[in-house]
Amino acid sequence: MSEEVPPPESLTFERKHKSWRQMLEPVTEKDFKHGYYHFWALKKHIEPLDIPFAREIDPMQRDWELPPNWKEIFLQNFEDTLRKNRAFKVFMDICVRCGACADKCHYYLGTGDPKNMPVARAEIIRSIYRRYFTKAGRIFGELAGARDLTEDVIKEMYYYFYQCSLCRRCSNFCPYGIDTADIVWWGRRLLNSIGVTHRFSHISIEASARTGNHLGLYPLGIAEALESVAEDVYDVTGVVVDVPVNKKGAEILFVAPSADYFATPHWFACMSYLMLFHEIGLDYTWSTYASEGGNFGTFQAYELAQKLNHKVYEEAKHLGVKWIIGGECGHMWRDKHQFMDTMSGPADFLEDPVSPITGTYFENAADTKMVHICEFVADLIRHNKIKLDKSRNDHWKVTFHDSCNPSRGVGLLEEPRFVIKSCCNYFYEMPEHTIRDKTYCCGSGGGLLTEEIMELRMRGGMPRAMAAKFVHEKYGVNMMANICAIDKAAFPALMEYWKLPVEICGIDELLGNALIMKGEKERETDLRGTPYRRED
Amino acid sequence: MINPFLEIVVPYAAFAIFIVGVLYRFVSWANSAVPLKIPTTSGQAGTLPFIKRSFYDRIDSPYNKWEVALRMLAEVFLFRSLFKNTRYYQSRHEHRDTRWLWGFAILFHWSFLIVLIRHLRFFIEPVPEPFIYVTELIALKIWVPTIYITGITSLIGLGYLFLRRLFSGNERTISLPSDYLALILLISVVVTGLVMRYIYKIPLAPVKELALSLIVFQPVAVDVHWLFILHLTLVSITIAYFPFSKMMHAGGVLFSPTRNMPNDNRKRRHVNPLNPPYHGITREEYNEMYKDQLEEIAERDYNFRPEV
Amino acid sequence: MAELYFEKIKGDSKGYYALIIFLSLVTAWGFYGFWVMFTQGHETTGMTNQVIWGIPIVNVVYLIGASAGSLIVSALSGVFGKEEYKVFSRMAALMAALMIMGALLDIFLDLGKIEHGLNTTLYFNTTSIFSWNAFLYTSYFIISVIYLIAMFERKDKLVKGLAFLAVGWAVLVHSGTGGIIGFIYSMELWHSPLTAPLFIISAIASGIGLFIPTLVLTFKFTNKPLDENLIKSLAKIMGAMIIVLLYMFCVEIFTRGYVPANLEMLRMQLFDLNTPFPVAFWVLQITIGMLIPLAMLIFPPTFRSVTWISIAGLLHATGVWFERYILVLPGLAYPKEVFPPGYVMEHTPPFEYAAVYVPAWPEIALNIGTFALIFLLFIIGLKVFELLPKTELLEEVSE
Amino acid sequence: MYSTKWVILLIIAFLGICFSPLIYNVSAPGFELEMPELDEPEGDHCIEDADWMEPNHMDLLLEMRTQTIRDPGGRFYESKTYPGEVYEGTTYQCFECHTSKTDFCDTCHEYNGVSPYCWHCHNTPEVLEEYNR
Amino acid sequence: MISRRRFLIIAGSATGAVLLGSSQLEKALASARSESSDPSKPLWGMIVDVDQCTECMNQLVAETGNPDPKPECALACDRENNVPEFREKKWDPQWFKMLKVRSNLEGSEYLWVPLLCNHCRHAPCAQVCPTKATFVREDGIIMIDYHRCIGCRYCMIACPYNARNFNFKEPLDGLTEINPETDRRGHGVVEKCHFCVHRVDRAVKEGVNPTPACVEACQKEAEKRGFEKSALIFGNINDPNSEIGKIIRTSKAKQLRPSLGTEPKVYYVNL
C-alpha cells in the first residue's frame, strides 16, 4: 500500500478554484487519478443482484460500453427517483449554493478538488436535473447551470459519487438540511440502473445476499470462528464461555458485523461480547442466517439495503426470539435505526425490548425492537450489574471517535462516552469541532474501504488524523475507541500512514478489559495480549 | 406616467405566477413519497432516562413532534444550522467557529422581512395606528429626516452575500449565473426603493392608490412616477421568478426530511408507501443450501464451547 | 512556551442558566428604567437644571476607565512581552469591548433625544471634546473588537500590532474622557489639567480591580487552575497605581485649595456633612476604596490569598466608582459664580449651594442594568467564543 | 400527495399571508380605495408648485428650517416657482392657507401610513384652538 | 528597551499631532482676532441697566408684596417664546431670570439683575456641542437647532452663566397660552434665550431696529412707571452710532465673568 501512496510529507492540499463554466465541464477518464477511482464491478457479483448491463471494463478506457438506450433508462429512473423520494427532489430544488458545506467535506479538505465540495458533488447531478426537469434549465441551458447528459457526465458521476463516504457531515451544516449523502446514495442507484457501478461493495452485497454475511462464510465457518474467539477468551481470562448459535427459543438475537469474528481489532470486541453475555448469563444466540449486522446495500440502493436487512427480522421470527441486540457498527446502525423497520418491518412478532438483567424497557427501540450494545451496556453499568476494574485500562489513554452514522444518523453520543468513562481512567476528547455531530469520517466509509483508492482514503482521513494527532501530542493519547467496524478496519492504516502511534479498538474491548468475571484467573495481559506491567 | 400594462397587467401576472408557482412547487414536492425517515441527528437522541439531553440536544435531535417544531422554528428564524458553521484552517489543521455568513444572512433576511411588513402600509387602509408605531419601532427609525435602519441593513446584508460570491474562491467556483441573478434582482429592488425614499422622492398617494386597487382587485391605472414603475416591475420580475429559482428555499426548508422529522425511528415506524417487496434468499432456501452445515450446528446442540 | 489553546465553556449547568436568567431579568429592569426615562422625559430622574448630569454619566466615566484597565491586562502579553498573561488576554479584551459598549449604551440612553443620537456621527464639531470622544469611543470599541477577532483568528503579528494600537487608543480615549471634565472652565471643580492623567491611572487600577474578581470567579466556576502569581502581579500593579492616585489627589486638592476663592467649594466637597460628598470621598473613596485595599495588598497574610486580593480589587473598583462620583457631582452641585467676586447672589432653586441630587430609580436601574448586561454578555461570550485557556495539561502535570 | 394534512395547512398559511392585506381591507370598516379629498386650501397657490410639493414638501421644510435657523437672512424664503413671492420660514406659515392639520396633513399622512413628528414641537391650529380659547 | 525604529515612529506621530493641533489653534486665534466691526454687518447685543431694573423691581415688590415677583419683561419672554412655567423650580425653564444680588459686606442693599443668555462671542456652549446644534450665527446670536440637539446637556455644563435650560418634561404641560409665531420644544432638548430671533430677522428685513419681547415690555413698563429710559437696550454693537454702540464705547458697561474670555454681548452697567 505505502509504495503506491505518496508519503504524507509530500501531500499538498492546494485548493483549486475553477470558474462556474469549468465546473460544468465533466471530469472524464482523462482526468481520473490513480488512487482515486474504483475498480469496475465484476459480472459474477452484480448479476445475482439484478443489476442490469453487467460488463467488465476498465474505467480508464474511453468507451464504457453503455447500453444503447442508456440515456432513456437513466432519465426514466431519474424521474422515478424524483417521484419516489421527496428528499431527493427537494434537495435538487432548494440549494442556494451558500457554501456552508464546502469545507465540511473531508475529501475536499484532503484533495482540494473543487468537485469534492458537497455542493459541487450534488451539482453534478443537479445540473442534469435542471436540464431535463426544470423549465429554466431547458430554456437557458448553461446559464441556469444545466448541462446535457452525456457519457462524460456519467463518468464524472462514477468518479465523484464514489469519492463520498456518505458521512452526512455536510448535511449537519446545511441551512436547509440538504443531505448530499442522500443525493449520492440515490445517484449511485441511478448509475446502477445502467450498469455503472464499482466493485468493492458488490462483492460483499452479493456474498451477504447469498450466505448472510459479507465475508461469504458458511454457517459452520461462522460457528467455528466464534468458537476460536471463545478460546481466546479462555486464554486471557481462564473462563470457558459458551457460544450459542442458531439456538431456537433464545430470548435475544445478537447481530454483529461479520468482521467482528474475523478481523482485528474487531476480534477483541467480539471477545468481550462473549465475556459480557456469559458474565450476566444472558439467554441469547448468534445466527448464521443473520450473521451480518452490516449492510453494504445501504451504500448502493434502497432495494439492496432491503435485501440485506430483511434477514435480521426473518431470522428473529424463525428463531422465535423476543428482541434483538446489535453489535458495534456504524452504517449498520444507520440501517437498523433509520431503514430496517421501514424496509422490512413491522416487527410486530417480537416482544418489547426489556433488559432481562435490569428490567429496563428500551422505549426508544419500542417498534424496531433492536437495541444497541452501547445502550444495553450503559444500562447494565448504570444499574451496577457488572463489576468493572478501570485500572486494567490504565495503559491506554483513550479518545473516542464518534463514527459518522451513529452520531449523525442515530444520535448515539453519550452512551459510548458513558461506557468508556466507566471503563477507563484516562479519557480525552478530541477538539470540539471534530467530535459528536461534527465528527469526521475515517475516510473509508460508504463503500470506499478498498485498496485501489488508498490515496483518497488517506487524504480523506487527514482531518481525523490531525485531530487524533492533536490529542496524541497534547495528552499522549494512544488508543482511539470507536463503535464502527469500518473505522476499526480503516484506522490502523490511516494511523500508520500519518505516523501516529495510536491503536484502534471498539469500546467493548475496553469493557472486556475492565470486566471482572466470576471465576477468572488473574489477567496477565489485556484482551489483545498486551502484558500488564508488573510492579516488582 | 400612466401605463396600464406595467401598472396592472405585469403585477397581476407576476402575482399569479408567484401564487400558482409556489403552490405548484408545494404540491409537486408533496407528490413525492418520503421513503425513509432520515433526520440528521446533531445531538443526543432520546434514549435511556439517565442519559441527559440538553436543550440543544432536543432542538438538534428531536425526539417528538414538539421538538421538531422547535427545530424547524430555530432553523427558519435563527438559521440554527448555519450558526454552527465552522471554518477549517488548512495550514494549522484547526477549526474555528465562523459566523459571518450567519450574521449577514440573518441581517438581510430579518431586515427584508421587516421592510416587507412595513410595506403593508401601502396595501391596507385604514392603516391602524399601532401598526405604524410597532413597525417604526422594529424598523429602528432614527435621525430627524427619518431613516429606517432595516432598509439600509438589508442592502448591507445583500451586499455581503454578493461580494462573497465574487471574492471568496470557494464561492466563485460554485456560484452560477442564477445565483447572481437572484441577488442582483433583490439588490435592484432594494436600491430603487431606497432611492425613492431618500434621494428622489415621488408622490406617495397615487402609489398607495395603485397598490390598494391592485390588492382589492379593482385595478385603476394611476399616474405614478416612473421610478415607482421601475420598482414595481423589478418586484414583479422577482416574485414571478421566485417559484422557479433558488429563492424557493424559503418554502423548501419546510419540506426537508433531514430537518422536519423526529429522530424516533426505532420508537415509531415510518411507512414507505412505495416499499418494494423483498427479493432474496429466504430462511427456507438458506436451510436448503447449507443443510449439512446447519445440521452439524444442530448436532452440537447449537452451542459451541471451546475445547480447553 | 507551547502554543496556548483556548476553549469555550460547556455552559449547560443549572447554575449557568440561573445566572443567565437572573442577569437577563436585571437587564430587563434596567431597560424598563430607560424606557420610563425615554417616554416620560427626564423628569423621572433626580437631575435638575443645576445638577444636569447624574449617575449614568458617572457610570459612563467609570466603565470607560475599567475598559482601559481590562485592555491593558489583555495587552500585557502583546505590548510588554509578558507571555504568561496570554491566558487572560482574550477574556480581558472581551471585557474591555463589553465595558466600552456598556459606556456607550449608558451615554446614549441618558440622552434627552435618543432618536437624534446618531447626529454625532453626521456632524462633527472639531472644537468639541465630546465630538472627539464620540469618535474615539466608537473607534476604540471597533479596535477592541478587531483585536479580539484577530486573537480568535490567531493572527499573532496582527494581534501584537493591534495591542499597541489599542493601548495607545485607550490612552487617547482616557485623555478624551478626562477632557470632558477637565476642559470645562466654567466650573473650578472640574477645570484641571490633572484630570486626564488621573483618569488613566485610576482606569488601570479600577480595571484591574474589577477584572481580578471576575477572573478568579470565572476560573473557579469553570474549574480551571489559576496561576496565583499572575493575579498577584496584577494586584501589585493595582497597588502601585493606588499610591500614585493618592498622590495625585493630594496635588489636585492642595493646588486648588491654595486659591482663596476656591476654599468654599472645597469645603463643600470635603467637609460639609450636609452633602453626601464628604462621606463618599473620605469613607468610600479614600478609606474603603484605596487605603484598605492598599493595606490588604501590603499585609502579607491577605496578600497570600487570591480571595482577599479579589476582595481588595472589588473594594478598589467600588472606590473608583465613588472617585468618579466625586469627580462629576460636587462640581455640578456647587453653583456657578456668575457675578463678579464680592457679590452674593440670593440663590434661587435650583441654582443654589450644594444643589440636591438624589438619583431616582430609573437612573439606578439603568446603571445596574448596564452592569448586568455586561456580565450577561460576558458569560454568554464564554459559551460562544473560545476565551478560556485549555488547561487540562496543567492538571495532568500536577497529578 | 403524501403528508397531505401538513401540506394543506402550509398552503392555507401561505395563501393567508399572501392575501392578508386583501382580507384586512375587505373586513376593515372605513376602507376607501382613493385617498379622501384634502381640505381645499385658502389662497391662490402653494409656496412652490403644488405637484412638486406633494412628494417634496418635507425636503422644502427641511431646507427652510436649516436656513431659518442658521442664516441671519434665511428666515425669508423666496419661491422658485413664483419669483418675488417671499414666505417666512415657520411651519405656521403653512397653516395660513391650510387651515386645518387634521383635514389636510393628517388625511394624506394617515392614508400613506406616515407619522412625522413635527407637531410634537410645532404649533398646529388644533393645539392653538385648544390652548388659546 | 525601545528600538530606534519604534522611537522614530512614535516621535513622528507625536510631531504630526502637535503640528495639526497648533494649526487648529492658530486658526481659532486668527478668527478670534479678526472680529468684524463693519456696522452694516450687525452684531446684536444688549445692555442692562441694573439700577433701572432694581428700581422697577423694588416698586413691583412693594406693589405685589411678593418678595420674588416675575417682572413684565420675563413674562413677555415667556409669552413670546412659549416658555412653560412649572411649579417644580428645579425643572422650570427660565430664559430670562431676575436675580437678587448684593455685595457681601454686612448690610448692603440688594440689586435686581436680569440674567439671560449672554450670547458670548466665544460661546463655550457652541464650543462643546457635539453636533453643532448650538452655534454662533453670523450676527452673533447663539442659536440652538432643536432638530439636531441630542440632549446630552454638555452645553449646560459648559455655560458659565446658567443661561440654559433642559426640557425635563413636555412644555405643553406648563403652558396656558401659545404664541403661534414661535415653536414649542419637545422634552429632551436644551433651550435658551435667542434674542427673539424671529423679531430680529423680521426687523432686519424691514430695515428697522429690532426689539426683543423683553425689551419691548421693558420700554412699556418704563413708560408706565414714568422712568426716563428703559433698563434694557438692544441693538447693533458694531454700529458706533446706535444707542447700544455708544454706551458700550463709554467703556462703562461690564461683562460677566470676563476672566473666562467668553466675551459676552450682554453688557451690564451700574453693576
Feature tags:
heteropentamer; A: 536 residues; mainly alpha; four-stranded parallel β-sheet; 45% helix; D: 133 residues; elongated
Q: How many extended strands of chain E?
A: 9
Which sheet architecture does the biggest sheet of chain C show? 2 strands, antiparallel
Number of domains of chain C: 1
Q: Supply the number of structural domains of chain E.
A: 2
Order of helices and strands of chain E: HEHHEEHEEHEEHHEHE
Number of strands of chain C: 3
User: What CATH first level of the largest domain in chain E would be assigned?
Assistant: Alpha Beta
Structure, explained:
The complex is a heteropentamer of chains A (536), B (308), C (399), D (133) and E (271). With 536 residues, chain A is mostly helical. Chain A has helices spanning 20-24, 43-46, 70-84, 86-94, 106-111, 118-133, 135-140, 151-161, 169-173, 180-193, 200-211, 219-237, 266-280, 302-319, 330-344, 373-382, 404-410, 414-423, 454-460, 462-475, 485-497, 507-514; strands spanning 243-244, 252-255, 284-285, 323-326, 370-372, 398-400, 427-428, 479-482, 503-506. Chain A folds into 2 domains: 8-198, no CATH class; 205-514, no CATH class. Helices cover 45% and strands 5% of the residues of chain A. In chain A, helix 6 crosses helix 10 (180-193), helix 12 (219-237) crosses helix 13 and helix 16 crosses helix 18 (414-423). Chain A is globular. The mean pLDDT of chain A is 88. Chain C has a single domain (6-398), classed as Up-down Bundle (Formate dehydrogenase/DMSO reductase fold), CATH 1.20.1630.10. With 271 residues, chain E is an alpha+beta fold. Chains A and B meet through helix 3, helix 4, helix 6, helix 9 and helix 11 of A and helix 1, strand 1, strand 2, helix 8 and helix 9 of B. Strand 2 (343-346) of chain C pairs antiparallel with strand 2 of chain E.
Brief characterization of the structure:
The complex is a heteropentamer of chains A (536), B (308), C (399), D (133) and E (271). By secondary structure, chain C is mainly α.
Set out the fold topology.
The complex is a heteropentamer of chains A (536), B (308), C (399), D (133) and E (271).
Chain A: H1 20-24, H2 43-46, H3 70-84, H4 86-94, H5 106-111, H6 118-133, H7 135-140, H8 151-161, H9 169-173, H10 180-193, H11 200-211, H12 219-237, E1 243-244, E2 252-255, H13 266-280, E3 284-285, H14 302-319, E4 323-326, H15 330-344, E5 370-372, H16 373-382, E6 398-400, H17 404-410, H18 414-423, E7 427-428, H19 454-460, H20 462-475, E8 479-482, H21 485-497, E9 503-506, H22 507-514
Parallel strand pairs in A: 2-3, 2-4, 4-5, 6-7, 6-8, 8-9
Helix pairs in contact in A: 3-4, 3-10, 4-10, 6-10, 8-10, 12-13, 13-22, 14-15, 15-17, 16-18, 18-22
Chain D: H1 4-18, H2 20-27, H3 50-70, E1 76-78, E2 86-88, H4 91-95, H5 101-112, H6 125-131
Antiparallel strand pairs in D: 1-2
Chain E: H1 4-33, E1 44-49, H2 50-64, H3 72-81, E2 97-103, E3 110-115, H4 124-128, E4 134-136, E5 142-144, H5 154-158, E6 165-166, E7 190-191, H6 197-206, H7 213-225, E8 232-236, H8 243-249, E9 266-269
